[in-house]
Amino acid sequence: MAAGVWSGERVVVFLVIIQVLSSIASSWLLWEAMALVLLAVGGLLVEIFVDGSEFTRFQTRRGASSGILLGTVSVPLVMLSRLIQLSSGLTSQEVGSEGAMSLESELAYLNIQYWSASVGGLVVLIFLSSLLSSQKGSKKLWDLRYALFSVFYFVLCATFCCLSLAARFHSRYCTVGKASWIFVHGLAAVGLVKHILVTFPLCASIGEAMLAASGLVLYLSDALLYTVVKANSLSSSFFLHYGTRRSQVNIIIQGALVSLLLFPILYKYVVQAWSFFSSHTDADVRDNAEHKGLSERLPKAVAFYALLTLVLTVFAPAWMYFVHDFEIHPILWAFTFVFKSPKRIFLGIYWLVIICSSVMRFYKISRNSTVERILLRKYYHLVAVLMFVPALLVEPEFLDLAFGVALAVFLTVEIIRIWRIWPCGDLVHKFMNAFTDHRDSDLLIVSHFSLLLGCALPKWLSSGFNNRPLAPFAGILSLGIGDTMASMVGHKYGVLRWSKAGKKTIEGTAAGITSVLLACSVLLPLLASTGYFLSQHWLSLMIAVSLSGLLEAYTAQLDNAFIPLVFYSLLCVT
Fold first, then answer.
1. Is 60 exceeded by the pLDDT of residue 552?
2. Largest CA distance in the chain
């Protein structure tokens, strides 16, 4: 029984949590640490119950465990690690008096985000517990246990949250306002998890849906809060601290991505209105090219492209103008920013050459070769290293913008593919299927999103104060180098498997860990030559690399999404 409960993935997750908690040196993070332990224990219990029962409420991705523990703690772990990093910078006096005030404001807002993610995970756990207790065949005794478990955890986490807020913000009304804002995140997270699992069946595990929902709720609420703060000057001082002022690049990225995330909802209502007024009985807005004629698809395609252009050139820039003082149109500002520096122009040309040559080459190989898709996809990980490492060393802000543009393009292409928008929808669908694996489906292809986000998120999270120069490289190192070498070496030379049911080998994991350490030994002198003060120790770095490598070996979840976040959390506290 104990061996079944403590699977390899669960053991590694708890070791990561212990490593992060052991680095806490500030007493004001006590409540946050206790809440993370509470979440981890709750996530473990719910995962055991779900994996040990016939949980059929949702159609999750085949071949994957529920992943509830990892999905529950990942985002709070990132936020807590970032809090530890910022608090260490504040106490070590690495910033001046003006920088200290900015850092305190960023700490205050990050504290709100930590509790929002934690409470969101807790409420999802309670939701899953209620589904377990309402399953057919469940006994009344178990119903009572689930109810008591939910009430106990909710009250305890709410107590920790309120004590933390009261210690940091002395105004009673301010604390109540923040607590209300935080608990709204929990309700939103539950709704979004349910929506993801129902709308995209067989596309994600429960843990992956929790990770996506937590990130989306935080990102969308961040944009909403920024808008509210700009609209009402009292809100920043009375209700919520927003944190540091955002750069133009960050505002452009957020405006474009939020607009694209909300665009499908707007387009769906437009098509439904179109169908209603044109007396069509077909309410399915995702047109299938095999069943729809051009006469029906063309008007909706025109409406799609017109609405997309309107959103990206009018609505999104209008929000950017509102929250930030742009002197020119944000799109023109972005072009001016790119062409202002010869290094950015050279990087752009360098990227275009690599992308065009690699895509055409790999596409031909995928159609005319017996090379396994898993190895073919790892070549793209190496391409990511070639593209992103030079930019991160010489033009990090330009890389931020490039990540945002690439993600916006990926979102647009995936929307076109899902809705089969004429004339590109079917062509994109056939092209993307050449690079899919068992984690993708016809309904939703996530592998390219997860790779890009895995490389981009550590860089975006490191904006502002950062005294851990390797932290922005977390995604590139773990996915571009570690995961790639583990797959290639394990596939060709691997003999000793970590488990009888899995395909991961000890040889592959050892190769991945060794390659990341070698890459760090090359990167650290390069970073030192650019002016970084290196404060990371090799022992803690080896522990961080080893734990992330072991998690990649044991987890059945989408490693491109989880491994960079876990590795980033460990690098922040090393």
1. yes
2. 70
